[in-house]
Amino acid sequence: MLWTFIHIIDILLWLLLAASASYILFFALVALLYKKPSSKLSEYLTGQVLSLNADKHFKFLILYPAYNEDRVIVNSVQKFLKQYYPYEHYHVAVISDHMQPATNEQLAKLPITLLQPVFEKSSKAKAMQYAINQLQRDFDYVVILDADNVVEPHFLEQLNEECIKGYKAIQCHRCAKNSDNDIAVLDGVSEEINNTIFRKAHNRIGLSSALIGSGMCFDYKWFSENVFKLSTAGEDRELEALLLRQRVYIHYEPDIHVFDEKVSNKDNFQKQRLRWMTAQIQSLLSLLPYIPKAIMTGNIDYIDKTIQQTLIPRSMLIVLSFLLALLVTAISREWCLKWWLLFLFICLSLYLSTPKQLRKHSVFGKILSLPMLVWRMLLNILKIDHKNTDFIHTTHDK
User: Fold this and answer.
1) Measured between alpha carbons, how far is 351 from 397 in angstroms, rounded to an integer?
2) What sign for the dihedral angle of Cα 374, 380, 386, 390?
3) Which of 220, 236, 260, 337 has the fewest CB within 10 Å, making it most exposed?
4) pLDDT, tens digit, for every residue of 7-52?
């Protein structure tokens, strides 16, 4: 009787992990079929870039919600202002929240709009809502960047080309700008795997890309009407849900890079993952009530997004599958084959999803840091409060 019970638990655990692994493996294989069509601008960009004579130049509003970001915000804005794009067709606004007077003085000297709201409880959603209320201008698109994000001088030229194609929601290719230690490298690799599975592969078969939280571009009219519906710290997931309920396709553009600073210490990693895990639970709970309507209307994008919120985080998946494979092998060699096959398929999925330039011994040698990071993620489970809407800020290292 006891062995029957243990075997049932063994099978249920395997099915639970296999469901998430199957989703990842499917889209990892789909991504192999991806062929990026060449574009006029991509062919044009060779080293130094001159401004394109585009048929139309859209007007962009660039928003930098910046909470306690004194170390990075000035540099990010200064670099953005070096765009080749016609100056009269874009405007930068920084929402300075809890930043030092000296930082605000530096920002005030730049040709931007500096907003300084006072929030009882800060959040990125509130910062964006405040900006839209304060900036009464005739824009075509709004771009959301984090305070540490750095872009190339042809960023808006490339984005303008994609907007001309009629997209109302675009997610740019966010990638690591630092690789100073094992944690930062693993965080950067994790982001690239996300780009492969949840963005590139999804677009490949006609599904919407996932949003990341920065490097996002939206039709200004749509954004100004919907930003006030945001209420949690997982504003990117809320924006996804709104877009998909309204059947607005999210395009992923791998050639438009947004360089993002990766977390490089254990405490910041744990804070970041706690915010993501909390947002995932909140998103799942908010998506579920609309599932019956999505099924009846054939909204595959919305159904797929709901499934995504049920997936086990990949780092937990690989470590748990390995540990359970060892445990089951010790209990019964007759039961262990399925676990080792599952672990193998998870490793294969992650390998295929990792860009070729990152498949190096120098990267995979850092995998020894993974168990410790997964342990911190497991500790986060005890801290998750799905009703909590407080902003969990991860600081940048000095």
Assistant:
1) 29
2) negative
3) 337
4) 889 899 999 999 999 999 999 999 987 555 444 444 444 333 444 5
Angle at the Cα of 120 (from 116 to 125), degrees rounded to 5? 70
DSSP letter (8 states) at residue 9: H
CA nearest to 49, candidates 175, 156, 171:
156
- For residue 190, give the nearest of 353, 33, 311, 32 by alpha carbon: 353
Give the residue among 306, 300, 344 at the shortest CA–CA distance from 322: 344
Residue 200 is classified by DSSP as I
* DSSP 8-state symbol, 201: H
* Alpha-carbon gap, residue 125 to 132, rounded angstroms: 11
Q: How confident is the model at residue 236 (pLDDT cuts 50, 70, 90)?
A: confident
Tens digits of residue pLDDT in 172-188: 999 876 655 556 667 67
Q: What percent of the chain has pLDDT over 70?
A: 78
Distance in angstroms (rounded) separating the CA atoms of residues 152 and 127: 25
List alpha helices for 220-368, DSSP H: 220-226, 235-245, 266-287, 291-297, 300-308, 314-331, 337-353, 361-364
Identify the bridge partners of residue 142 per DSSP, sorted by sequence position: 61, 218
Q: Please report the beta strands in the chain, taking only residues with DSSP state E, as ranges in sequence order.
A: 60-67, 90-97, 113-115, 141-144, 150-151, 169-176, 216-219, 250-260
Task: Please tell me whether residue 212 adopts helix, strand or coil conformation.
Answer: coil
Q: Are 229 and 272 in contact (CB under 8 A)?
A: no
Instruction: List phi, psi (to 5°) of 233.
Output: -80, -10
> How far out from the chain centre does Cα 297 lie?
27
Residues in Cβ contact with 1 at an 8 Å cutoff, skipping those fewer than 6 apart = none
- Pull the structure tokens for residue 154: 């042809």
Helix (H, G, I), strand (E, B) or coil at 363: helix
3-class SS at 392? coil
Residue 351 scores a pLDDT above 50: yes
**CA neighbours within 13 Å on the CB side: how many for 18?**
12
Encode pLDDT of 248-266 as tens digits: 999 999 999 999 876 555 5
Say which DSSP state 149 is in: -
Query: Which residue carries 């993952």 as its tokens?
Result: 273
Span 114-141, average pLDDT: 90
